[in-house]
Fold:
Amino acid sequence: MTPETQRQIVMAERPSGALALRHFKTVVSLIPPRPADAVLLRNIFVSIAPHARAVMQGPTHRPQLVAEELIPSSVIAEVIAGPADGPEPGSVVAATAGWQEYSVVPARAVRPLQKIGRLSHHMGLLGLNGLTAYFGIRKVASVRAGETVVISGAAGGVGHLAGQIARSAGARVVGITSSDEKNRILENQLGYSATVNWKSSSFLDDLHTACRRGADVYFDNVGGPLLEKMLPLIVDRGRIVCCGVTAQYDMDNPLPGPSDLAMQMIAKSLRMEGFLAANHKDSWNEALRELKELHESGQLTVLEDLRDGLASAPTALIEMLAGQNVGQLAVRLAPDPVGWRSE
Amino acid sequence: MTPETQRQIVMAERPSGALALRHFKTVVSLIPPRPADAVLLRNIFVSIAPHARAVMQGPTHRPQLVAEELIPSSVIAEVIAGPADGPEPGSVVAATAGWQEYSVVPARAVRPLQKIGRLSHHMGLLGLNGLTAYFGIRKVASVRAGETVVISGAAGGVGHLAGQIARSAGARVVGITSSDEKNRILENQLGYSATVNWKSSSFLDDLHTACRRGADVYFDNVGGPLLEKMLPLIVDRGRIVCCGVTAQYDMDNPLPGPSDLAMQMIAKSLRMEGFLAANHKDSWNEALRELKELHESGQLTVLEDLRDGLASAPTALIEMLAGQNVGQLAVRLAPDPVGWRSE
Structure:
């Protein structure tokens, strides 16, 4: 029943400045033959993540994208065919693939999903964003009860989870976003103690008011000039978690970093650390169990923005980079397989 | 026998730009009366340290200096008088005081010196510089055998010790300084594997050549634009130790920080950490024992630049900030007390 061809979205040209639809192109291509040790997957969800923008700009932990190359993404997919010792046909896995309808990937590179929660949650809460938020707050920042944790990009896929994980550890959480509307959601639905809009003319005053006793942790999802504003507020032995750089992606040239960085780092004995969820693979199962428990016990609300159809992916990414989305953003290509609860 | 007055060097005016002699003034002032819980000290050595320049510019871990205020420094001093339960008269202590002949400080704030090594070594190897180098390499960077450690300000009071401590841990050590002359000393006398002169027109090429397999650790004593040059060379899981900011002191406005910082921190899971030796007070005795052993076993050469007389302190600091000194810089005000070996 698998067709011979599929639709893929590739990079049309390397973007210069803000991302636009012209930088993408939909192509129809042959689904490649499946090697003996690979699985053929039918993609159910493809992720919309800032990393896609990053590789269009330059190398990350993978090489830079070239024109006509598939936009990479993580996917959730149903196994159509595979080796006898691989995941069973009909089972659902997470994989690194791209914006396309089908994927052929090495069987050992897919991660079978436990049938827990809603399938879409495996794109966010129970996927890389949830794991990133979890390890960033728990392992990198080591957030403790009573601390003040400031989160930039606080309404994003990682941010909205990181804030709630910090709050569940007893921290006071301050969110920074680009709109009052997003801030209302954070305060009313997610239990943030305070929020600040960085586009507001009173931003610096608002930030100081929200952090009267300073900030113990700055969890940075944007990687831009906010760090320089935050530095004076961070207290002795404070931690800066470098988690994302959304503010940098739509730029040809990176912005200068904070002046006075080294002096502040030394005088206050600060630690700044970048990380990837992949660094903590040994603890993924434990983390997923805890994330699920936080959600089921009502301590963690998942915000999702699910779009329909492969063609909606470029617009979704453009809107994400413009800060227009709230929560986990993903594109659905196919309905959930039988057996996944759909509520 | 203690006189009623003493000479002190104070800040004449807040420097703007490069430090000069006009920013200092020698005054004669009364030695204050000694409170019951304080010691009167006769200073033997006063330190010449970049921190003196930092507090002339702005607050550090202490408030900014105001005009007519004593230049602060650590000192090594002989106890002249003190409370019965304090250090004995005639004993030698380290204290935080300033550029002056006598000091009156709380008895509990002085640190009695063990009579080991040369007294001058307690200004460097067995003082704050040695402890800073030790904890920076051992605890903050956690340098391991086989790693490449790049040190800026590599011929300075902290730098020349940090490089040798890293080498004694089995690391390959690359030094960055501002002169070929200093680099020859590092390579010929201190066992550096390679050195680079940042003033050379071939600096970037030289740096890449010296770090062919990248750098695991960047131990930064200067805090300036070198960090941006180093970032691309630092490998996965690399560490950046923020130890000093000599490059920033002679500036009215701090330089911008490295662009692309957050992206590099995340993609390579880097850790950047600032620290003070004071954070590790519980381990000072252990550290001093090991520093002494490294020196006595010939693994660690101490370079000293000792000047004579209080009046030489301002020039010494100006030269230090201009990168003209090698090793530990200090000013001697009085001969070693009886019982200290003088070789």
